[in-house]
Amino acid sequence: MLLDQAARAGAALTRLGVRAGDRVAVHLPLVPESVIATLACGRLDAIRTTLPVSLTIPELAARLRESGARVLITADAAFWDGSVRPVKPVLDHALARSTAVDASRLPHTVLVVNRCSRPVSWKPGRDRWWHEELAED
């Protein structure tokens, strides 16, 4: 099942324009999709860049600019210490902060893993659901 999901994720990343040598930023908590993204990047010879979910907004903004990632994979939210904490809202703030500096170095696509079924801000044309992209295969 894991290998099947990795093949689907690899196909989705290919459709999004990821090629060998491209960077894919992963901003996920410890979830299966993080491993799937790693395997998918390996299939494509893409470079997986980790953006820890514990980063502050300024730290995340700097790492996003430095990453040069074509695609970014994140989650809507995550469970920590028995509560639900935002992940994508923090990322959106970091992306907005980075856009003011240099939008050309930011990801073109953000794949969002639905972890907590919570309302999430959405930027049409950039944001896409992970499960929908993997289902297109």
Summary tags:
5 helices; 137 residues; single chain; 43% helix; Rossmann fold; 5-stranded parallel sheet; 7 strands; two-stranded antiparallel ribbon; alpha/beta
Indicate the CATH topology: Rossmann fold
Q: What's the alpha carbon Rg, rounded to whole Å?
A: 14 Å
State the secondary-structure class: alpha/beta
Indicate the proportion of strand residues.
Answer: 15-25%
Number of helices: 5
CATH architectural label: 3-Layer(aba) Sandwich
Distance between the termini: 15 Å
InterPro entries: AMP-dep_synth/lig_dom (IPR000873), ANL_N_sf (IPR042099)
GO molecular function, one term: acetate-CoA ligase activity
GO cellular component, one term: cytosol
GO biological process, one term: acetyl-CoA biosynthetic process
Describe this structure in words.
GO terms for molecular function: acetate-CoA ligase activity. One of its GO terms (biological process) is acetyl-CoA biosynthetic process. This is Acetyl-CoA synthetase. InterPro entries: AMP-dep_synth/lig_dom (IPR000873), ANL_N_sf (IPR042099). This protein is an alpha/beta fold and 137 residues long. It has one domain: Rossmann fold (3-Layer(aba) Sandwich). Helix content is 43%, strand content 22%. It contains 5 helices and 7 strands. The chain has helices at residues 2-15, 32-44, 57-67, 88-102, 130-135; strands at residues 23-27, 47-50, 71-75, 77-80, 83-86, 109-113, 127-129. α1 (2-15) packs across α2 (32-44) and α3 (57-67) packs across α4. It starts with a helix and ends with a helix.
